[in-house]
Backbone:
């Protein structure tokens, strides 16, 4: 599975304003699992991989609470807007998909562009980490409903797996 690389300078910029523990419930380990879930899904859905990758690091990037945190997706999208000229090279249409995916990722929506649906599914497939079984009716794509892919995501989520690249590229100090 090929991975779209998220640059270390972008991660550094995001973490500079991140209010929660880096390795907390919604921190970089979660972002990385969402990235890897998204790349697996995109292979099957045809989603725009760069949008899915950027969603993984922006959707929870401006959380202020590990629990209920209304508006955190919009704050993540606002951060993406601020960093766009420096770190993000997406077309306007693709950037709009990123913003939509971030803003609405906790609203329980399932309809939309396949790239947005893939983003939402990538995040929902990591719910096991907080002891929530993803609701099949809230998974958007047939790929996310595949039992083999769900099992792969579940094992990683429950174990709070942190891919090696996170320690090497995102948490280097």
Residues:
């Amino acid at each position: 599975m090929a991975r779209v690389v998220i640059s270390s300078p972008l991660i550094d910029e995001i973490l500079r304003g991140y209010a929660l523990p880096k390795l907390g419930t919604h921190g970089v380990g979660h972002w990385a699992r969402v990235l890897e879930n998204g790349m697996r899904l995109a292979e099957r859905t045809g989603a725009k991989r760069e949008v899915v990758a950027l969603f993984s690091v922006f959707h929870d990037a401006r959380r202020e609470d590990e629990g209920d945190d209304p508006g955190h997706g919009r704050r993540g999208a606002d951060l993406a807007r601020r960093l766009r000229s420096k770190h993000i090279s997406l077309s306007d249409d693709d950037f709009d998909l990123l913003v939509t995916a971030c803003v609405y990722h906790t609203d329980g929506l399932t309809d939309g562009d396949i790239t947005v649906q893939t983003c939402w599914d990538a995040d929902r497939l990591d719910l096991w980490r907080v002891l929530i079984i993803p609701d099949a009716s809230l998974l958007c794509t047939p790929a996310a409903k595949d039992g083999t892919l769900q099992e792969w995501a579940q094992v990683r989520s429950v174990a709070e797996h942190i891919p090696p690249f996170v320690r090497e590229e995102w948490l280097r100090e």
Remarks:
- The two ends are 27 Å apart (CA to CA).
- The longest helix spans residues 28-45.
- The mean pLDDT is 96.
- The CA atoms of residues 41 and 143 lie 6 Å apart.
